[in-house]
Design goal:
7 helices; four-stranded antiparallel sheet; Maltoporin, Chain A; globular; Immunoglobulin-like; mainly beta
């Protein structure tokens, strides 16, 4: 009996001796910040844990012998430690994690703030759509960027014509005229061109798209009330890039595009060419086209010269020619008669020449000069009516950047000249001239607090044949970034903005500017707005990463420009009460083993025109929107995506309500030999379209009227093609 007791005691001692303890603190290898929520596990065991608020974690009941312990955290490389137990002492181990290169989205150098900072260190809230996502959206609509914007949280592409497909972009529920569209920082897409701008920007040469929501007037002046969308082109690298795309859809659209770029020594080049053909398509057999007959051609060559590594020049020219015809299908086919008589034609030519000088100094300071000259010629025809004109825009911006260890200071000045001349009558002739100076200071108060303050002073003269006005605008802006810890961060920002009066709005675009009077006795719209958000990221499990962003916004526009009706004429006045838009956006992202990605976005927008009696909600604006996307991807091999979008009820201009609806899309892409990719896209395969509820076109047939466009008009579409990357 004594022998059994002795053996049992020895086993208990051995068991007790083998139950080791390990204490660790996990830090960022660069900043030495304690990392909260790091997942850790011991291989070949059930022992695991997550670091606490001080980055501390304790393991218990560890067996003797060599143990492998892995540490993983979102945005950091996985680390595996080999520890032999029992240890000679029980000192706490200091574990250093290295920021991973996978988290390139946070390390992208943003251009829209001109500070050469990464997104994670920029106080201004910026959303970046990277090249990979742009490539996916190009599968869906290679002709233009409308799909990129339509499927982003908080953005809405609003179609303005049932027959020609013209569209504008809304941010946070506000009309398109309150958002500044830029291509590589050049603002050449406003006024007369606004209804067609996003339809004439192809995605094939884009490196990324940066979206700033909320007031952004410090660097970009008038029109940046709701935000700024900057489409950034690729630049040539030493290794040449040659991309080709061929796409065909079931609604008779063909797209052929090519992009090439390379840098050799002191010279570089890039060139984009795109041709789009579209036959008129009538999905609901009502004799009227949902997509117009169109021919579109774009070419954009750019030349780069690098005399030294600190000095570069760029000279580019973008030319786009477009010819669209929608309306009665028999008229489009050349078989017009007294009954089949309605058509709408849009012919445009856009030519933009750009020049840029970029000089870097040894002390990291820099000087940049940007100039552009843009001509936009457009002719609109419907039966017994023509509207045409030429819009000339000249833009010059010179800025100097001072980079110090703890702060960045940008100062600059710009000149903007805009002139529209209407052919024939000249009733809507208008011009404006803006001179502005600005300064922006970004200060690293500490590793965890970044502050940004900006100030702009603009003087604007605008006039037409019967009216002229001069105004000066004082535009402060402030924003801040707070890095609470390795998992939590927050940004807040606020500022003022303005928009000078224009007759070119979404409402007047939809009626081809018929019977619109010239501006008289109106003043600029002024705004105050702000955003605040909070970000969270963590590893739920070792293979499942999670991040979330919750953003709140509010914008108030005083003296909004409102279209009024006087018998047969339309004219603009400044309303006495404001437009107020407020709401929030929620974005969630789950990544499982880097192969499966789930994105979920929700937008709540409460935008009201306080000057209206009765119903004050802005027309064609859903209060609730949901974006869902599930993507499976094996890099350079296979990609598959399923998307779903919910749009809530909307008020029309006559105060009636639309139904809520869902739409779904599915895409597959297969890559062969690393260079060839074949894709097919099933867009809106549930066939959600407006004519399923009511005809968009109203009788009489030869002189129809059109309902407001509040959802798809073309319904279910299929497109597919091939991409070649060399």
């Amino acid at each position: 009996m004594t022998r059994y007791i002795f053996i049992l005691a020895m086993l208990m001692c051995t068991f007790t001796y083998s139950q080791n303890t390990l204490k660790v603190i996990v830090k960022d290898s660069k900043t030495q910040e304690n990392l909260i929520g790091v997942s850790a596990r011991i291989h070949n065991s059930t022992i695991s844990g997550i670091t606490d608020n001080s980055g501390f974690l304790e393991f218990n009941s560890i067996n003797n012998g060599e143990q492998k312990i892995s540490f993983s955290f979102l945005g950091y490389e996985e680390l595996v430690l080999n520890v032999i137990f029992p240890r000679k002492n029980d000192e706490t181990i200091n574990v250093q994690l290295i920021a991973s290169e996978e988290e390139e989205l946070d390390e992208v150098i943003v251009q829209s703030t001109r500070t050469s900072r990464t997104i994670r260190n920029t106080p201004t809230r910026i959303e970046s759509i990277d090249a990979e996502e742009l490539d996916e959206k190009a599968n869906m609509k290679p002709a233009n960027v409308s799909m990129v914007l339509h499927e982003s949280t908080g953005l809405q592409v609003q179609q303005t014509s049932a027959t020609s497909g013209n569209a504008s972009i809304r941010v946070q529920g506000l009309d398109g005229r309150y958002t500044q569209l830029l291509k590589d920082g050049y603002a050449n897409f406003g006024n007369f061109a606004s209804g067609l701008s996003i339809l004439e920007i192809p995605p094939l040469d884009l490196q990324q798209v940066e979206v700033i929501k909320g007031p952004s007037s410090t660097l970009y002046g008038g029109g940046a009330i709701a935000g700024v969308i900057n489409f950034i082109s690729k630049t040539p690298k030493e290794k040449g890039e040659y991309n080709f795309i061929l796409n065909q859809s079931n609604i008779n659209q063909t797209n052929i595009g090519a992009y090439a770029s390379q840098r050799k020594g002191k010279f570089g080049y890039s060139i984009l060419g795109l041709v789009n053909f579209q036959k008129a398509f009538d999905v609901d057999n009502d004799d009227f086209s949902e997509t117009p007959k169109s021919h579109n051609f774009s070419i954009n060559p750019r030349l780069f010269y690098y005399p030294s590594e600190s000095l570069s020049f760029m000279l580019g020219n973008s030319f786009t020619k477009s010819d669209m015809e929608g309306g009665d299908m028999q008229v489009i086919d050349g078989k017009a008669d007294a009954y089949h008589a309605y058509f709408e034609k849009n012919k445009t030519i856009r030519n933009t020449t750009t020049f840029e000088l970029d000089k870097k100094f040894e002390n990291l300071n820099g000087f940049k000069l940007k100039q552009s000259l843009s001509f936009f010629d457009r002719k609109i025809n419907i039966p017994d009516y023509e509207f045409s004109g030429l819009n000339v825009n000249a833009f010059t911006d010179a800025s100097y950047v001072i980079n110090k260890e703890k702060y960045t200071l940008i100062s600059g000045a710009n000149l903007v000249y805009d002139n529209f001349e209407q052919r024939n009558s000249g009733v809507l002739n208008a011009k404006s001239f803006t001179t502005g100076i600005y300064v922006q200071h970004t200060w690293d108060v500490s590793e965890n607090v970044k502050l940004e303050n900006g100030l702009r002073l603009d003087n604007v003269s605008y006039s037409n044949s019967i009216f002229s006005k001069n105004q000066t605008f004082f535009l402060p802006k402030v924003s801040a970034l707070f890095k609470i810890n390795s998992q939590w961060s927050s940004r807040v920002g606020a500022g003022l903005g303005y928009k000078i009066p224009t007759v070119f709005t979404e409402q007047t675009e939809s009626i081809q500017y018929q019977n619109v009077r010239a501006l008289q006795n109106v003043t600029a719209e002024k705004s105050i707005g702000g955003t605040a958000d909070i970000n969270y990221k963590a590893n739920i499990f070792s293979d499942l990463k999670f991040s979330a962003n919750q953003m709140f916004f509010i914008t108030k526009i005083s003296k909004p420009l409102v279209l009024e009706n006087d018998t047969d004429d339309l004219f603009f006045v400044n309303a006495s009460d404001p437009v107020l838009s407020r709401g929030f956006e929620t974005n969630l992202k789950f990544i499982y083993k880097e192969d499966f990605k789930l994105f979920a976005g929700y937008t709540f927008t409460d935008a009201q025109a306080k000057y209206l009696n009765g119903n004050q909600f802005l027309a064609l604006l859903p209060k609730n929107k949901v974006n869902l996307a599930l993507i499976y991807e094996k890099e350079n091999n296979f990609k598959m995506g399923l998307e779903g979008y919910f749009t809530d009820e909307q008020f029309l201009y006559d105060a009636s309500k639309t139904p809520a609806y869902w739409e779904f899309g599915f895409m597959i892409e297969k890559t062969l030999w690393n260079n060839f990719a074949f894709f097919i896209n099933f867009e809106n395969f549930t066939d959600t379209r407006q004519s399923n509820y009511k005809r968009v076109v109203n009788d009489p047939h030869n002189k129809p009227t059109f309902d407001d466009i509040w959802t798809h008009t073309e319904g279910f579409t299929i497109n597919g093609g091939v991409k070649i990357k060399l």
